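Hi there, hope your week has been kind to you so far. Thanks so much in advance, here it is:
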Amino acid sequence: MSQPAFKRILLKLSGEALMGDDAYGINRDVVAGIVRDVAEVAQLGVEVGIVIGGGNIFRGMAGEGSGMDRPTADYMGMLATVMNAMALADAFRVAGVDARVQSGLRIDQVVEPYVRANSLRYLAEGKIVIFGAGTGNPFFTTDTAAALRGAEIGAQVVLKATKVDGIYTADPKKDPSATRFQSLSFDEAISRNLGVMDATAFALCREQRLPIKVFSLFKSGALKRVVLGEDEGTLVYC
């Protein structure tokens, strides 16, 4: 059996990914597929941390656009991510996989607060750690939370799961001649204005020399191939 290319990863999932083809909410079949893929990777001995968004329930930026106070909207968005984290953790439980939710906001009666030492211990014990509530602060995206938690837990890579199978020279839906980058540097991604992650998250990963791998969440076996170091998705490196 091939050896994993990474010992510890941070997987970034968007809230919208949990919807599948539904208009909103959580699609149980999609969640079951995510759990199956992550469990397969964990069985290889890879330690997995997950940051999840909340856009399938509520998006802070949308709330602000409707006239809501931005911090209030962002806190509501953070609570949505906690709901997603709890749903995902329960799906892991059903599948017989041990998972823990840690929240950047204190909601002690519901989930435990984020404590770095505890998350490191859980990871070393082979548990999946799901980080909810983003960074715990308004004005920051879950992309930034992924970069932050990835750096804090010593992840070797941030895996950004999207609807496309990598970074392309142009939008492949609009330009059939667009080609996928196998890899590119942070500087090249900036110069091409490729928008891999939001600027704060991207700058943090670059500063911490934390590579980013963009791949498709909906491509069968993609997560395992990424972890095994195969040609899947696009790697952004320092």
